[in-house]
TrEMBL record:
Protein name: YciI family protein
Residue ranges of every copy of the YCII-related domain listed in the record: 1-109
Record InterPro entries: Dimeric_a/b-barrel, YCII
Domain of life: Bacteria
PANTHER family named in the record: BLL7163 PROTEIN (PTHR35174:SF4), BLL7171 PROTEIN-RELATED (PTHR35174)
Family membership noted in the UniProt record: Belongs to the YciI family.
Length: 124
């Protein structure tokens, strides 16, 4: 089963401050651990929300907003992993490093659909 582990952004991330060297090193170690275990499919760090383009549909037309609304929770990074079940994915997510000075950093585990949209009976 595939799962996406999502790390929520905090004020420093959204202000554009890069992670400190120690925290960046902890993230690299985490990534390497996932690779050695053979579960990492892909991973990425996302830029601050000020660089996001949001597209909304209005009357059938796609309208681009240069800067999305500020009341949304933003994502700082993600890992797409292969795990045998939700419990294993949650255990990997529990190991996600967060900056030591931050409290309440959210990490979420989402299970990916097993079939692509085009093949899903729910979408027919």
């Amino acid at each position: 089963m595939r799962f996406m582990i999502i790390r929520r952004a905090g004020a420093d991330t959204e202000a554009g401050f890069p992670p400190g060297r120690e925290f960046a090193a902890r993230l690299r170690v985490y990534d390497e651990t996932l690779i050695r275990a053979g579960v990492l499919l892909t991973a990425g760090r996302l830029r601050p929300e000020s660089l996001v383009a949001q597209i909304a549909r209005h009357g059938g037309e796609a309208v681009v907003t240069a800067r999305p609304s500020l009341d949304t929770e933003w994502i700082a990074g993600f890992w797409l992993i292969q795990a045998k079940d939700r419990a294993e994915a949650v255990e990997w997510a529990r190991r996600v490093p967060v900056p030591g000075r931050r409290v309440g950093v959210g990490v979420e585990v989402w299970q990916c659909a097993s079939r692509p949209w085009r093949d899903s009976p729910e979408c027919l």
